[in-house]
Amino acid sequence: MVPGTHKLRRAPKKGEGHNGGVPIEMPKGSVVFFTHGVWHWQGDRTEPSDRVTLHAHFNRGILRSLEPKKTDVQMLHRNAPRLGEMLGEDDWFDKMSAQGRDYGRFAYMAKLRAFTDQRKREILEGA
Fold first, then answer.
1. Gene3D superfamilies this protein is in (predicted)?
2. Long-range contacts of 22-30 (CB under 8 A, 24+ apart)
């Protein structure tokens, strides 16, 4: 990975980036986290056996992936409830309804936006 490239807020140009790359070597079973803006690539594998890479993308709770997730239910039971929340499997607003999973979130966000707009008006009128 190339440290500091997330501050550039752009993708690398052709031929750019590899000269500043720093290898991340870790023991088996380790994990590395970085934001989407960091320039990175997989180097050539010199060790025998397979390399396993898991790309997990997390969004704010109000957002949902366009693709349905196929999460192993047994994995959710083996881990802390927070994992289910992070994967979007648990409804942390506790607003499940017949209108669908995100109906409650949408209604909540509409109320929050109305409150914010009202407070903004009050502040601007008082200025």
1. q2cbj1_9rhob like domain
2. none
Under a CB-based contact definition with an 8 Å cutoff, are residues 58 and 86 in contact?
yes
Token pair for 117: 């707009």
**Residue 122, helix vs strand vs coil:** helix
Instruction: Compute the distance between CA of residue 101 and CA of residue 108 in angstroms, rounded to an integer.
Output: 13
Where b means 16+ CB within 10 Å and e means fewer, 39-75 reads: beeeeeeeeeeeeeeeeeeeeeeeeeeeeeeeeeeee
- Cβ(93)–Cβ(105) under 8 Å? yes
Nearest to 90 by CA among 61, 111, 60, 66: 61
Residue 86 contacts residue 79 (beta carbons within 8 Å): no
User: How is residue 36 written in tokens?
Assistant: 């989407």
Give the predicted TM-score (pTM) of the model. 0.42
Instruction: Convert the pLDDT of each residue in 39-81 to its tens digit.
Output: 888 877 787 887 777 776 666 655 655 556 677 778 877 877 7
